[in-house]
Design goal:
The chain has 20 helices and four strands. With 435 residues, it is mainly alpha-helical. It has two domains: 251 residues, no CATH class; 68 residues, no CATH class. A hairpin with a 3-residue loop joins strand 2 and strand 3. Helix 5 packs antiparallel against helix 14 and helix 13 packs across helix 19. The model has no long low-confidence stretch (mean pLDDT 87).
């Protein structure tokens, strides 16, 4: 039985084993565990019960990650997406005064659209239409993005009213501990020690607890709490109120955030084929779309692929077992929700910084001497972290690629979908600017 499982997940071809995959899954979970606390805190402002949201967050992340691991066999974990949860609460529910049940109906409809486009092959066509140089730019941009998140969580980069950001206080215990954690993880990585990131996270967590630097507040949760949100979505209400605009936003942002994350994780893991295609792409997209539909039914906003999956990949994860382990840990977190916050940001921040730096390896694939490639790639690379959005960076990259090739007289009919994407992104930016 064990041999058949290893064959199904292609352990031999991928050069992996059970120990590596399990350690990678735990690493991914530790870098994503914050969502169990953050997502309920954001969505509860819409009037949804906190305890139910905690359970729904864990269950949807578990379902999506396990589905991705079993069906698509990729080390990509899923959970309710950051940004979309804020849009759900602060724009749809609070600003537009839409009941959260109706908003969940809109999330459900966006998931159904995902499924339809995936089944028809349109999502796959969209991904294939993007130039492979922009793949590399997205992967590197996400590297900068998650490194920036790590710097912020470590307190090394802080907000500044005059310069937007500035250097934090390196004498702060949290910042000093995070920097020590980064040195420790890099040292372990240099020595080729398996599970170096996980060892670093656990070591820094132990030190933080020993010095009283962890301020932990138990979170409510439990399977029984799900009854307050499960199957409470109002699909007919979303249709009757004409929430097509909201459905489109949920759909559009998740589509390109998902594609960007997918490219980043698969490139980091070396899973993209020589012709720049992604094997089993339709299974990946089906798992993502199904997870969004499931999440809306249990009571949370759009579920999407998480860029923190790259932490597990950096720890050696190559197969779907990594995602399955992460999903099982999220499942266990439903009952253990009060203990999810025991790992402090000082422990996970250096992991994000290290992974972010490793992801910049793809930058060498970009032809920097060709302005038609360099400018769109640079815009993609730099605007992902600066606008705090994968979709924004990819949007500017695609628009500039299309415009520059048109101006240079290098328009090709076979690239029609790329130009359509550019037009859609341009319409999105105009819409966002007017709202």
């Amino acid at each position: 039985m064990r041999k058949r499982i290893e064959t199904y997940f292609e352990f031999t071809r991928l050069g992996t084993n059970w120990r590596t995959e399990i350690l990678a899954g735990v690493t991914t979970f530790l870098t994503m565990a914050y969502i169990v606390l953050v997502n309920p805190a954001i969505l509860s402002a819409s009037g949804m019960p906190l305890a139910a949201l905690t359970a729904a967050t864990c269950l949807s992340a578990a379902f999506g990650s396990i589905l991705m691991g079993v069906v698509a066999r990729y080390p990509i974990a899923l959970a309710p997406g950051m940004g979309l949860n804020a849009y759900f609460t602060y724009v749809v529910c609070l600003k537009m005064h839409i009941p959260w049940q109706t908003a969940l109906g809109a999330v459900f409809l966006s998931g159904i659209i995902f499924l339809a486009l995936t089944a028809s092959g349109i999502r796959q066509m969209i991904l294939r239409s993007i130039p492979h140089e922009l793949y590399a730019a997205v992967a590197s941009g996400i590297g900068l993005f998650i490194a920036f998140i790590g710097f912020r969580n470590a307190g090394l980069v802080v907000a500044d009213p005059d310069t937007l950001v500035t250097l934090g206080n390196i004498r702060s215990p949290t910042t000093a501990l995070a920097l020590f954690g980064l040195i420790l993880m890099v040292a372990l990585e240099v020595k080729k020690i398996r599970g170096s990131i996980l060892i670093g996270v656990l070591s820094i967590t132990a030190i933080a607890w020993a010095f009283g630097l962890v301020h932990w507040t138990p979170a409510p949760g439990g399977f029984h709490a799900l009854a307050a949100t499960a199957f409470k979505l109002d699909i007919l209400g979303a249709i009757n109120k004409g929430l097509l605009e909201i459905v489109f936003v949920f759909f559009f942002v998740d589509l390109f955030d998902n594609l960007g994350t997918l490219v980043a994780v698969t490139k980091r893991a070396g899973l993209i084929a020589s012709d720049h295609s992604i094997p089993r792409l339709n299974r990946i997209l089906l798992a993502d779309a199904t997870a969004t539909v499931f999440g809306s039914m249990v009571g949370t906003s759009t579920v999407t692929s998480y860029v923190e999956s790259t932490a597990g990949v950096a720890a050696g994860g190559r197969s779907g077992v990594t995602a399955i382990v992460t999903g099982l840990l999220f499942l266990g977190a439903i009952g253990a929700a009060p203990f999810v916050g025991i790992v402090p940001p000082a422990a996970t921040a250096p992991a994000l910084i290290l992974v972010g730096s490793l992801m910049l390896a793809t930058i060498t694939e970009i032809r920097w001497t060709d302005p038609l490639v360099a400018v769109p790639s640079f815009l993609t690379l730099i605007l992902i972290p600066l606008t705090y959005s994968i979709a924004n960076g990819l949007g500017f990259g695609i628009i500039s690629w299309a415009l520059l090739h048109l101006a240079a007289g290098k328009f090709r009919r076979q690239d029609w979908l790329l130009y359509l994407l550019a037009a859609l992104f341009l319409a999105r930016f105009i819409y966002l600017g007017a709202s």
